[in-house]
Write a structure and sequence with these properties.
This protein has helices spanning 16-29, 45-52, 75-98, 111-114, 120-129, 145-148, and strands spanning 6-10, 34-38, 58-62, 103-107, 135-140, 153-156. By secondary structure, it is an alpha/beta fold. The chain has one domain: Rossmann fold. The termini are far apart.
């Protein structure tokens, strides 16, 4: 288990994604390849269109089909969206296995635990796929104990 190069941005206020995006831009400016996969936030076309301008250095993916946040969806639509999110998780694992990037940002990933979309075993398989050279950034509201054992740095973002 390699704790190096695993970072978490968590907290109840906004700015976690902004902090991770700033780190992505900084890394890309230093020649790193960056992939961002967004979970639970809905499909926001304007945001995605802007982020795609950063390609090819920063590639952005969202597997959401609904424009609403996951928590705003009725139960039936949540079940459908869970399958899309699972596809995003599988894509993240593939990215790590193939070494497609030097920085992988999993935006909103911590919320997958709260919604029972990933298990301890899923997380373990994801972390086993990570090479020592790859950095991972997780974002979300609540730091999960299962993630904690893999993390080198935690930034708990609070309002002052």
């Amino acid at each position: 288990m390699c704790k190096e190069k695993v970072t978490v941005y968590c907290g109840d206020i906004t700015c976690k994604t902004t902090a991770a995006l700033g780190y992505a831009i900084q890394s890309a400016s230093q020649g790193e390849n960056v992939i961002i996969i967004q979970f639970l936030k809905g499909k926001k076309e304007e945001e995605m269109e802007f982020l795609r301008r950063l390609e090819p250095e920063v590639r952005f993916f969202s597997f959401a089909r609904s424009e609403k946040n996951f928590s705003e969806l009725p139960e039936e639509e949540q079940q459908e969206e869970k399958m899309n999110i699972r596809n995003g998780f599988n894509f993240a694992r593939k990215v790590l296995v193939t070494g497609e990037c030097s920085l992988l940002i999993l935006d909103g990933f911590l919320g997958l635990f709260d919604n029972q979309m990933v298990s301890k075993e899923d997380l373990e398989s994801l972390m086993k796929a990570k090479s020592e050279d790859t950095q991972i950034v997780f974002t979300g509201k609540v730091m999960n104990d299962m993630v904690g054992k893999y993390v080198e740095k935690i930034y708990d973002i609070k309002e002052m």
